Amino acid sequence: MGTFGRLILGVLLLCLMALAGGAGYFYYQLTPPAIAVKETLYLVKSGQTLYGVSQDLGQKKLLRNPQAFRLLARLQGKSTQLHTGFYRFDGRRSASAILDALTEGKTVKIPFTIPEGYSNKKAAVGLNKYGLSEEKYIAAAENPSPDLISHYSFLKGTSGEQSLEGYLYPDTYHLAGSVEELQEAQLHRFQELVMPLWERRPASHTLSFSDTIKLASVVELEGLLDRELPTIAGVFLKRLKIGMKLESDPTTEYAQGWHQGNTPLSLKDIQIDSPYNTYRYHGLMPTPIGNPGKVAIEAVLFPKQTDYLYFVARGDGSHTFSKTYQEHLAAIRKIYYGK
Fold first, then answer.
1. Is 204 in contact with 301 (CB distance < 8 Å)?
2. pLDDT digits (tens, 9 = 90+) for 280-297
3. 74: which of 30, 85, 166, 224 is 20 to 30 A away, CA to CA?
């Protein structure tokens, strides 16, 4: 800092001391607030200003005096150096410590887990409590930007150009400052884990990339046990090959907009007129019905060759597989009625 800069700082300090009763008062305003505040998770979003953040921290009783905080930042030349992300503050931290954290990017990692098979709407649940918008996550997923599609070329020619359903890879992520950053991380993870699988798919695999992800989303939701997923994939691939309807409960639930849990679908449920109702329509759905994980995608690419055409859940996570409809009915009677 030059002589002129030091002179300006000196004048500011002298003015502060004169107007506020001395430097002691100024430094008192930078001490932790008198009211003890529990540890608070605070999110600095992109574009937020020092003024807005300081006022907000003051309202939350994390700063004693927002104006003194801003003056300290100016004196230290840190007015425009706020880093986006999550911070943990409480009433025991001084204004100087908070300023250092914000300007040095001492953010904390917030783990956010999205289970395999979750739809975009279901994946977004819980973001609001971290200061991120569930609605914005869903809107961004349903209307991906051209730049995003251009960057992740695997989306081109798929339903991912209209909706990211199926391509936002389910995993545990560390939340940053926006839902766009979260979705970027999910797409990067998809590219990292799924595209190598696709590149080494066998010559016998005839589904397009888009249809592969669609079917994988069904397989993911049909099976709870990883060891059964290749068999379930084999059943559905066989059905598609012979022109048989998939008749998958999760697709019809997606059409209904709800999850049945342990309640069987009713006759009325499977009559809904929707392209996602695979009890009514042949072939695959217009889009995936959720975001499948690596195991489900791998199961579709490398299915178990099987003569099975049917399966029914036993209630413990496993399934009974059958070759004929008569065997299937017998399995249902045994599981549900003990006969």
1. no
2. 999 999 999 999 999 999
3. 85
